[in-house]
Amino acid sequence: MLESIKVTERLHWPELELSKKYLLSPTDRPVSLSQISLQKLSSSVLKDIFTTGTSSYNVLLQTAEERKSPKHSPYKKPRTPGRCSSSAHGKDRGQQALGPAPLAGPERCGSPKPSTRASGVPRPGHAIKVTGSTIGLAPRPRVPARKLSSSCGVPRTRLPLLAAGSAARDGENSARKLCILSAIKPTNVDKEKAKFFKSDFTYNPQFEYSNPVSPLVLARHNNASDKFLTQAVRILELAVQKYGNYEKFEQATGGSLLTKSRIGYHVKKYMEKEGCMGEIVVHLTDDLLSRASMTVVNGRPTLTINISTAREHWLEGMLRHEIGTHYFRGINNSQQPWSSGAGRKRLGLRPLNPTEEGLASIHSVLFRRDPTLWRAALLYYTVHQAGRLSFCQLFQSLGRFVRDPNTRWDYCVRAKRGQIDTGQPGCFSKDQVYLDGVLKILRHRHNIDFLLLTALGKVSYEDVDRLVGLATMEHVRIPHFLQDQARYREQLDKIMEVNQLTDEELQALI
Fold first, then answer.
1. Which residues are CB-neighbours of 230 under 8 A, at least 6 positions away?
2. Which residues, in sequence order, are CB contacts of 466 under 8 Å at separation 6+?
3. What is the pTM of this model?
4. Which residues are annotated as catalytic?
5. pLDDT tens track for 96-126
6. Which runs of consecutive H residues, i.e. helices, occur in 399-484?
7. Separation CA 24–CA 6 (nearest Å)
8. Contact status, residue 458 vs residue 352, Cβ threshold 8 Å
9. How many Cα atoms are found within 13 Å in the side-chain-facing hemisphere of 418?
10. 245 class by beta-carbon count within 10 Å (0-12 exposed, 13-18 middle, 19+ buried)
11. What's the CA angle centered on 495, arms 491 and 496, to 5 degrees?
12. Contact yes or no for 328/478 (Cβ under 8 A)
């Protein structure tokens, strides 16, 4: 249906460019005033946008280090160019809208190799080009509005240039931490799965890793919580009581699986609604533990979708999660004074999680007929049980809620990844952040300004009030589903009701 769709069946990127076709070309339709076109955006900025807050901690970082550029202050005002002249046009010749870049082989964790570019493709720079109107947020009370540079009457805003090492200096956004997330994916999953199934689910897999993580680092992530265990189990039991088991819940609420062409159609329609056509490269795969992930591949924002879990009634929720939350908050964050690790440290910002993943998880079920928080609850429960049980014991424990052995296997691998001998109790606890974040946001939903929370970028809801006076608001991007705040808040109340959560209960817990 979409002749320009680029599909990779497995996430093993080719060493050479195989095709010039991409899913959603920016030339598919005229660019409207509601769209923004990325212009020479450096890979370091993109890396900072997506190093946190993906839908999964199964992150594939495949960025290329660009040439070192002189450091720029995030507070430096852009120069105001003169009238359009031949010299100005000469400067702007290479500043065309950035289209999908060709895929190259994956980079390993560590020092990335310099990327090679075909002639005629603009080198990454430090600015994005923005067109359209801004949202109706109050102006900053203390900081005067920045002057906008323009080229032939088109407004343009300049993003602060992040130094190549800025992400690494940020304890939360460090590239090294993300390499850990990539390193904990076992290399022998298929072989161990065959052994496990052949043993009638009694064998504890012995996982292998190409770059094993040190025991000290793994120990920091082996800290399962039981704070919201009661709520997690209740949510799961409500779904089982109503539908019988997870498989029936999935079919009744998610609908049928979509073909590749239908996935492409829905993704294109969603991007048109959000005004981000041509900004994101899309790949389809069946080799992903999560339903989707937003990463950076060769300097381009890349959305990878697991076709084995793409259901007709759930796909738009996934797009709200990945694009409407992670991508837009990342873009907004890149123009703020706290976009670098040094800026976050100087301002004393709280960790962006659990707010980031909690907000994204809420947006996954927003507007569903039955917004049961099943996945967030099951991930929380699985991690808790993994901290106490072996792999095969965990597999049996999940049978309480999930019948299909393949689905149970996937959840067990997520919770046990990083371990070599899964016969021992232990977990990778990051997956508890989803339910943790959801419940904290629902607890404070009446006091949170969700427009500001999105506009300020990758910040905790707890920091919104004190940051608004320092923020750049001129060209923030707000997803379409947040425009009607009354309807949005009604949906939050519905999520509370369907999952049998009460304000009194959450106030006592949080």
1. none
2. none
3. 0.69
4. 322
5. 333 333 333 333 344 344 444 433 434 443 3
6. 405-416, 433-443, 450-455, 464-467
7. 9
8. yes
9. 28
10. middle
11. 115
12. yes
